[in-house]
Amino acid sequence: MYQDMPLEQLREYRGAVPEPDDFDAFWARTLADSRGAGGKVELTPVETPLRGIDVFDTTFPGFGGDPVKAWLRVPHGLDGPAPVVVEFVGYGGGRGFAMENLLYAASGYVHLHMDTRGQGSGWSVGDTPDPWPSGPQATGVMTKGVLDPKTYYYRRLIVDSVRAVDAAVGLACADSTRVAVVGASQGGGLALAAGALAPVVTAVSACVPFLCDFQRAIEVTDAPPFSELTGYLACHRDQADAVFRTLSYVDGVNFARRAHAPLHMSVGLMDEVVPPSTVFAAYNNYAADKDLAVWRHNGHEGGGHLDDLATLDLLARVFA
Fold it and tell me: What's the pTM value of the predicted model, to 2 decimals?
């Protein structure tokens, strides 16, 4: 059922997400520090029964130089550098198994599928720990280190996402002039962030994106993972100002305002996990070319394979 604004209002809704004065400086410093931490990309071939796709177990330096896992999938017999797609995973998931998620490589693209630090035990497996300490938190990662943007979990994960782009464009098989970032839910929120922070990105697909307009979200849904924030604030009644200040540094609306690459986005009007108004807030603030698929009778699954087809259409147009 519909639980948010009417569609006519959603098309005008831009949210009221605060923008920290030092937002750009914060992310410039954060990325410079992690890039300066060193580390190298390591590729190990994986034996699979696949005949059309080569798979590599990949490790690259993420936040603070931490080793982050990924799968690299490359069309077999690739003749010269190909466009590259960097994909991020939804909440609770990891990179999965080597033979999963073959869409982009089967479509002729170099595909780097990033693992998600500290997650990957909810609905798909992961292999990357999050070694950084934090204070008291609610179940999950939404409130891990949330009292300070410097200690917040999503600062680290967003840096991992940008560094995944760095790793991808440095591959001999990748065309560094044609780079897309894609994802759904949490992965969509990370795609918005990486798309804004990495100048080499030339296309963004963010389906039913999470991590946008946090304050609005917790006012209109009690579904996880946003409910982790509600539960934390119900216990820590005096910490709301600090929490929302931290969240403003990772909010997809603020990244959307800095967008430079063409976008495909989708929204499910019956989505109880990511309220439609939070998606529209990001979309309506998006500062580059964009299109939005509105799925009137769907929830957090969005458009499913139709979103996949729309993403492939965007890539074909942009990479051409």
Answer: 0.97
